[in-house]
Amino acid sequence: MNLTYEKCGDYLIPNLIPDPEPDGELRKFGLMRKQYLKEYKSGIYQGMILSGKLKEHLLMVQEQAELQFDMLVEQMAEREGVTEQLKENNQMLWVQRMNNTRARAEEIVRATLLQ
User: Fold this and answer.
1) Mean of all residue pLDDT scores within the chain
2) How does DSSP assign 47-93, residue by residue?
3) How far is 24 from 55, CA to CA, in rounded Å?
4) Which residues of 4-39 are buried (b: 16+ CB within 10 A; e: fewer)?
5) If you write DSSP's letter for every residue of 18-36 in order, what string do you get?
6) Is the pLDDT of residue 2 over 70?
7) pTM as predicted
8) 54: region left, alpha or beta (phi > 0 left; psi from -120 to 50 alpha)
9) What are the pLDDT digits (tens) for 43-99?
């Protein structure tokens, strides 16, 4: 935060202009991390808001979480035989197994990165 002053009569009044926030949209994992910090780590949350580092932190955690989630889904699906061949032969079974795999991967990411 750059701090400059404006002279108003005999007083110097600070021009409080926050640094620009990083570009990027918060998605599922970023919003989950924000909610966790807000509810359970309010001191850290408030400190990040005041220092202007909250969105940067959330975007970084979101990127890590998405990479880990994608990697876990791919590895788990491969290990359990959830393939394109299964998708062609029995689409409902493929959907069931992929939903199960995605839910387990999300739970792992939530437990490791978001808390």
Assistant:
1) 93
2) HHHHHT-HHHHHHHHHHHHHHHHHHHHHHHHHHHT--HHHHHH-HHH
3) 9
4) eeeeeeeeeeeeeeeeeeeeeeeeebbebbbeebee
5) PPPPPS----HHHHHHHHH
6) no
7) 0.81
8) alpha
9) 999 999 988 899 999 999 999 999 999 999 999 999 999 999 999 999 999 999 999
Residue 99 structure tokens:
């939903």
The confidence band for 115, taking pLDDT boundaries of 50, 70 and 90, is confident
As a whole number of angstroms, the distance between CA 70 and CA 76 comes to 10
CA-CA distance, 88 to 80, in Å (whole number)?
A: 16
What is residue 18's predicted lDDT score, i.e. its pLDDT?
A: 74
Q: Report strand pairing: 11-17 vs 2-8.
A: antiparallel
